[in-house]
Amino acid sequence: MRQKNALIPTLRNVGEAEMISHQLLLRGGFIRQLAAGIYTYLPLGYRVLHKVENIVREEMDRIGAQELLLPALHPAELWQESGRFTNYGPELVKLKDRHDRDFVMGPTHEEVITDLLRGEINTYKKLPMSLYQIQTKFRDEKRPRSGLLRGREFVMKDAYSFHADRESLDETYQDMYQAYTNIFTRLGLDFRAVEADAGAIGGKGTHEFMVLSDAGEDSIAMCEACDYAANIEMAEVTGPEEAADKTPVAAMEKVSTPGKGSIGEVAEYLNLPAEQLVKSILFVADGVPVLVLVRGDHEVNDVKVKNLLDASVCELADEETVRRITGAPAGFVGPVRLKEKVKIIADQAVMQLNEMVVGANEADVHLIHVQAGRDFEVDQVADLRNIQAGDACPRCGATIYFKRGIEVGHVFKLGTRYSEAMNARFLDPNGKEQPFIMGCYGIGISRAVAAIVEQHHDENGIIWPVAVAPFSVHLITVNTKNEDQARMAEWLYEELKKAGIEVLFDDRAERAGVKFKDADLLGMPVRIVVGAKAGEGLVEIKLRRTGESKELSPQDVLKELPEWLKRADSK
Prior knowledge:
Blueprint: H1 20-27, E1 31-35, E2 38-41, H2 43-62, E3 66-67, E4 73-75, H3 76-82, H4 84-87, E5 93-96, E6 102-105, H5 110-120, E7 129-138, E8 153-163, H6 166-186, E9 191-195, E10 206-212, E11 218-223, E12 229-231, E13 253-256, H7 263-270, E14 278-285, E15 288-295, H8 302-309, E16 314-316, H9 319-326, E17 343-347, E18 356-362, E19 365-370, E20 380-382, E21 400-415, H10 417-421, E22 425-427, E23 433-435, E24 437-444, H11 445-455, E25 457-458, E26 461-462, E27 473-477, H12 483-498, E28 503-506, H13 512-522, E29 526-530, E30 539-543, E31 549-552, H14 554-567
Parallel strand pairs: 3-7, 15-17, 17-20, 27-28, 27-29
Antiparallel strand pairs: 1-2, 4-6, 5-6, 7-8, 8-24, 9-10, 10-21, 11-12, 11-21, 13-19, 14-15, 14-16, 18-19, 21-24, 22-23, 25-26, 29-30, 30-31
Helix pairs in contact: 1-11, 2-6, 2-11
């Protein structure tokens, strides 16, 4: 493609863009923002998007998944069947047609694919079956400010598998897991598969594929010794090995703590360590209030709470609910004398405290010398807190540390979550009706593009891996008015095209400095520069990643180019 006529509007400044990928994709003319979280893919960006899509297609096809295309606009009745019309949350884009019928702009397609298969497949003889699509999705994100990493409109590959038994689901899950590993390896990403929560999708058994990056929104707990890795939402905290100390302590006593509602304020006021205090946090799970207890130096994990309670919706209680149930404002709530009003669940670390400080369910008052079992009872003890750096690995006992990650893929074992709700059934070998057993597998295509840039850039611009680069070669004429340079560059351009090499030809009448800055910004893996030595029959070939360069004749460039492209991804 000739750059003189190409739509590649490079920029020097991009305003408020925070993420490196957002900045560089805007500066390089790969994307343009139409509205918050909504982007146009310009020709270079669209080429990258297609490269990613094609890699995904190849790996999906390799494991026998069939591509189809489902509607983006869904009748609300399907989402009401599954229960997600109300439970999915405010990210679900809802609208009405001219007849006042409710519709949904699809953020994902479990309902639609289940509806399709319940009408088309009625026997185990057609199972297992895996189907996938690559399509635009819609989610009304609250803060769509990270470029392609968090958009309200985005491109996603979503796949769904249908099975007659769990063993078949396990086999396909492993096939998909390996396909995802192949995909992200081919995209040139440094990633980890981590244990994760299924969230609004539902189901049990799930892994996220996380690209390791400081720009990531997710915290990943990783083990220094083994391959354990988990999203912080799901990272297990091992229980104590020793029994709790239950030595008798002084009688429970009220103390005044005027205006001291936070753990830090109470700890400082009473001159006690935060780990001797207990946070009492009121949740509402499917409309039922539940009091959750965690140690003062720990953070409650609301996903663990939700999963323990097997709740569809689990949220922090608002201030009015807290006061109505406990009689006190948040910050002064405690478990004493609340058991008749609410279910009380405690993190395992709380139950190791011999005595503790808790809220007194009165404004500006706490209780000291409180002992579990003597002064209050709990209904259930479980792992309810976030894992912390320095905690023991739940697999091998070594030390946990943290990395940031960008989620680019997610694989789920849905089980019968949707088939039961939507009455999607087949006949088994005995002629009995059984619900489909399902799996779900997603990849953020546009998000992967941004993740690639986050990992592959330097201070000058993007450094595309060969597999996804818009063009393999950037051919630059330093001076288009010089006959030797112009003639040699034109010859090389035609020969590269004949050889099947994707080449961007900078034939613009611009200064050399502008061309080289743009080439660094755009980040094609190999650069061929036709400059001052064209009259001597030499051009320069250069790797964008390492800066390695060599002067060769145009003929030798064509011979050696395959080897240079192989080395282009090496660091």
